[in-house]
Give the backbone structure.
Amino acid sequence: MHPTIDEQLRGALRLLELLGTTIPVPEDTHEVLVNVTRLLRHAQRAAVSVPAFHRRDNAELTVLLVELGEHVTEDAAAGWDGGDAGHDDDATAARRNVQLRSRLCRVIERLPLDASNDSARAVVGAYLLRRVDQDPV
Amino acid sequence: MRDDIQVLLRQFFETRLDGTQGMITNLCRVGTGRSRQNWVFDLDRGDGGDPEPLILRRDPDGGLVDTDRSVEFSVLDALVGSRLPTPVPRWLDADGHWFGKPSMIMRRVPGTCDYGVLNGELPLEQRVELAKRLCALLVGVHAVDWQGLGLGDVLEDPGSHAAAAELGRWVQILRREQLEPYPELEFAIGWLRERVPDSARTVLVHADFKPGNVLIADGEITALLDWELAHLGDPLEDLGWVTQPLREREHLIAGHWDRADLVAEYERLTGQPIDRQALTWWQAYSTFKTAVMQVTGLRAFLEARSHEPYRPARRVLGTLLRQTGAGGE
């Protein structure tokens, strides 16, 4: 169905660029226009790629957390919901991603800060670096 | 906005000038600073003397950091007695009673600031010389006799635990402002807590030292601005800030004034060796602080207190992770 979300965002960006190049505006207004344009570009990229990113990230996080469950105390692993996330709709995938990231935070906080957990920190650090590089937002 | 400020200034000075009514002239808003709104003007008291060149700095709605304007005013007031080139504070509106938001009026100093000056249009020789002067200025900040100037009455002395105190402060800010979990920041916090160094000495820390906060006129540094984050602490905090990877373009000149040059010059001027391991910690801390400022900026934007759409940036998080042990570094 047209216009799609992507088409609407592209259209908004085109109009903003037209505004920025044809109508002289005060410096403060120009700054706001630059910020609006930047936000819309982010939204355009996110609308296309974020849902798939969340599903991939949820799958990888699930594996990571189960793996880390061997390195943390019982109370950190208790209550873990490792249910199947492969069929989540976009909103559920986003919520599950927040849930999983919150769980990872708690695991990280409870990782003992000594050499015995160097391998766990290395695995977590490698995952986080990959995620930062791949995050479309 | 300009007419409103004109009215507000007139009302303010009616109560401040011992019954006389100074004339405000040449009022003009300047810059689009992310942390302050600035208006320059001249105050003519009508007593035959020269008009006083002044600048009004007013807090924005959603600044990246909440700071106490009265503390900044007290710091600047104390520094009038030092040899540092700092603006003279003249009046304070600590709670925004007069100007709508906390504000300060300072004597205006000639010069311009350019955050990119070290990698700008000046000849290389001048830029390297300027870089050395900036290093000397930083040494001067840390050499201030803060006890003699009474800054111990205004600022808390953390003693040898400055690193732990600052890390704790920014973790607290993160907890207050974050809207979602950030495992990347938790990973960094763990590393930072494990390695927090003790401080060898306590100095006045500027905490946002950069060319963008320095006024330069005719090649000379005329003022170091923006003391809102100043506090007592470890000099390596400032040195870590200016040598952190995220700010290389601001503080270094590739191939001509590198990180090692800056640190060596600082050591030469102070006569004291720098603990490189501690400096590495403060560099990672600087990146963490930047990430937390972006988190607060995001919240301010989403709550419509700011017009700047901040968010924790990929480059910041990636740098922080690498500095705190991710990726095998």
